[in-house]
Amino acid sequence: MSTYKDNDYKLEVHDLKKSFSEHLIFEDFTFRLKKGEILAVLGDSGSGKSTLIQCISFLERPDTGKVRIGDLSIDLTNSNEEEIGILIDQIRLKIGVVFQDFNLWPHMSVMNNLIEAPIQVNKEKKKNAKKRALEFLKEFGLEDKENVKPNSLSGGQKQRVAIIRALMMNPEVMLFDEPTSALDPNMVGRVVNIIKKLSDKDITIIVATHEIPFARQVADKVMYIADKKIVEKGYVEILDNPKTDKLKKFLNI
Amino acid sequence: MIAEFEILKWLKGIIVTLELTIVSLLIGALIGGGMSLLSMSPKKILNKPIDLIIFIIKGTPMLVQIFIIYYGIGYLGSSKEGFFWNALKSPFFCATSFLAINSAAYMSSLIESAIKSIPKGQYLSARALGMTKFQAYKNIIIPQIIKAMLPAYSNEAVILLKSTSLASGITLMDIMGVANRTIAQTYNVGQTLIIVALIYIILNIILSKTIEKIGAS
Question: Which residues does chain A have with pLDDT short of 70?
Answer without folding.
Answer: 1-7
